[in-house]
Amino acid sequence: MTNQNVQPIFILPEGTLRSQGRNAQKANISAAKAVADTVRTTLGPKGMDKMLVDSIGDVVITNDGVTILNEMEIEHPAAKMMVEIAKVQEDEVGDGTTTAVVLGGELLKNAESLLEKNIHPTVIANGYKQASEKAQAILNELSKPVSIKDTDVLKKIAMTAMTGKNVEIAREKLAQIALDAVLKVAENSDIDRDDVKLEKKEGGGIDDSQLIDGVVIDKEKVHADMPKSVKNATIALLDCALEIKETETEAKIQVADPKQLQAFLDQEEKMLKNMVETIVKSGATVVFCQKGIDDIVQHYLAKKEIYAARRVKESDMKALAKATGARIIASLNDLKAGDLGKAGLVEERKLHKESMTFVERCKNPKSVTILLRGGTEHVVAEVERAMTDAIGDLIAAIIVGKFVVGGGAVEIELAKRMRSFAETLSGREQLAVQAFADSLEVIPRTLAENAGLDPIDSLTELKAKHDKGEATAGLNVTTGRAEDMLAKGVIEPLKIKTQAIQSASEAAIMLLRIDDVISASKLSRGGPPGMHEPGQMGGEDF
Predict the structure, then answer these.
(1) C-alpha–C-alpha distance, residues 343 and 324, integer Å
(2) 214-364 carries CATH number 3.30.420.40
(3) pLDDT in tens, 494-534
(4) What is the pLDDT, as a whole number, of residue 14?
(5) Would 433 disulfide with which of 53, 280, 396, 422, CB 3.0-4.6 Å?
(6) Is the CA virtual torsion 468, 469, 471, 472 positive or negative?
(7) Is the distance from CB of 391 to CB of 155 less than 8 angstroms?
(8) Is 307 helix (H, G, I), strand (E, B) or coil?
(9) Strands (DSSP E) found in 239-387
């Protein structure tokens, strides 16, 4: 006989929240869709901007997907996964963050329709996995080759990256600057994004932005009597302090006679003078020191007309080494003429009330600086984001060596081919692949919506063109017509699309496989999981 008085067993602490099954899936999908909807209106050349105000009143105005999501204080765990999509896209390519997030949200939205038809989440996840792998293969077929020598194509890629940003009025000049910078630091199609340094300074206009054949560092000369500019400079990079080191052990010096104190001070000054003599003997006319420079050393360097800057950042030191060919020296005694770098001009200039050091006219520099200007702090910050996108696109295009057509053309063609692929499958996975194909159309549909066009008419016209074999037909948001995007120069690196589809589909698959969300409230109180005080044995039964 069953005992009707058996108490339920509670294994979770009181206050723990738990949602299971369809409720958990719906909550996760709703949170992910909310994130996607937030950035969706920023997509494309006619996308709108967001104004983000934090708790202390700082304002950010942008249409850059990853910036918007980073500035928002998102709490929901599923929503945070959508933010991760944007972050990975930014780290891997530098552009396409909005595309990736919007696609992820649409994949989950279409999966929700399948869940309501009682199709198991595992079946949908398997279908999405097959579709993602097939999409990567089709994208490779649709892509076109590009090399570091195709400067016209590369410039169009950079211009496409800047379209729709607040810098569009100067995009041609900025795209040329980005291209020139990348080409200067490229070594056999191997490019490190850190070799192109972006230095922003408000004041002037966007058109005043320029490429420096060298490095700009936010430091001024350490002594007023030092020369303001040095032509044909020989540069020493020091990772050691130009000052007297303190002893590592505690020491006490007893002085019985004022002469002894004077001798001690004279010896200290002599040591500092010897440091300056070592620099002079090496032939250096400019010194960048990562650590401090003593006042006496500053004085003697100024007398020798040597330009010096101190406490230079490690990243700037590495950039200077690449730009000038100098070696970073850890001990002053090791400084030799062969360790010095060269630059045509080292000069201190004042920009917007602050002095900066320009190291330029370097011969064959492997690190360059793009000096970005803008009328206000918010404008110059947006210029920086646009330039980051353009440089990321150029590097992705050169390294992978392929590009695809933009304007929604590649998504429409990909969706068409994915539907053909779905017909070769049997079982319920076929429905998931069809849902994947439908999801791809969110990109051209959103481009149309953001441009104030009728999305149904636009998609119908695009599909008709692609059915006729016009694989490069995309949406021209200016005219509202389906046109050849390749001829219009609207092109993007292949990696933007492959990375976006991969990240979005993987995140969607992971969220679909979650059927239980347990919020461990105890973690927020400082105690380890599973620990609770006597009398707090409530919670959910498992």
Answers:
(1) 6
(2) no
(3) 999 999 999 999 888 888 887 766 676 544 444 444 444 43
(4) 63
(5) 422
(6) negative
(7) no
(8) strand
(9) 286-289, 307-309, 328-329, 341-351, 354-360, 368-374
Q: What is the reported pLDDT for 276? A: 86
| Among the listed residues 513, 510, 506, the one whose alpha carbon sits nearest the alpha carbon of residue 132 | 506
Return the SS3 of 61: strand
Identify the H or E element spanning 137: helix 121-142
Q: Which of 388, 395, 539, 415 is nearest to 474 (CA)?
A: 415
For residue 518, the cross-strand partners are 18
What are the boundaries of each domain within the chain?
32-145+404-513, 148-212+367-400, 214-364
Q: DSSP 3-state assignment of 405?
A: strand
Instruction: Count helices and strands (H / E) in the chain.
Output: 17, 19
Name which of 331, 340, 335, 320 is nearest 291 in CA terms.
331
Angstrom CA distances, 190 to 227, 239, 327, 497, 536, stand at 38, 28, 22, 21, 60
Reported as type and span, the H/E element at residue 502 is: helix 494-512
In contact, 215 and 367? CB cutoff 8 Å: yes
Helices 151-162, 171-185: axis angle to 10 degrees equals: 130
CB 226 within 8 A of CB 305: yes
Measured distance CA(104)–CA(109) in Å, rounded: 9
- Catalytic residue list: 64, 97-98, 389
The answer to whether 201 and 380 have CB atoms below 8 angstroms apart is yes
Residue segments in the chain with a per-residue pLDDT below the cut of 70:
1-21, 188-189, 245-257, 259-268, 516-518, 520-542
Q: Which CATH architecture has domain 32-145+404-513?
A: Orthogonal Bundle (1.10)
At position 169, the amino acid (one-letter code) is: I
3-state secondary structure 453-492: CCHHHHHHHHHHHHHCCCCCEEEECCCCEEEEHHHHCCEE
Identity of residue 480: G
For the domain bounded by 148-212+367-400, which CATH number is listed?
3.30.260.10
The model's pTM is 0.80
- Give ∠ CA 161-166-167 in degrees, rounded to 5: 65
Phi, psi (deg, nearest 5) at residue 466: -70, -35
What's the pLDDT score for residue 200? Answer: 86
Beta-carbon count within 10 A of 352 CB? 12
pLDDT at 2: 53
- Residue 152 identity: D
Give the Cα separation of 75 and 245 in Å (integer).
49
